Amino acid sequence: MSMSNRRQADAEAEVTFFLPEDGGKANAVRSGYRPGHQLLENYLTSGHHEYIDKDEVWPGETIVAKIWFITPEAYPGCLWIGREVRVHEGSRLVGHAKIIKVFNKLLERTD
User: Fold this and answer.
1) Which UniProt keyword terms apply here (predicted)?
2) Is there a smaller number of Cβ atoms within 10 Å at the N or the C end of the chain?
């Protein structure tokens, strides 16, 4: 189910998935993928990805995605333009998301 009909995305990011030889996944992921995101040094949370202009992304590719995070009130002020967020499957780092827009003002760093 699309998250876009529930609430506005929290952020938009350029998501890059690592190649398998760099520790990434061996197969493609599709819109609706829900990996972990390390938003704080000691806090990993789930997020829902919806990819723009393409539904499927292969290892080694970069794509623009809208991301909805779970419980954003638990980590306020943690996002800014240019921030790179680690993308995980469990403890395995599979890529990163470079923030290009912050929609959720609660998550936007203000200093």
Assistant:
1) GTP-binding, Nucleotide-binding
2) C
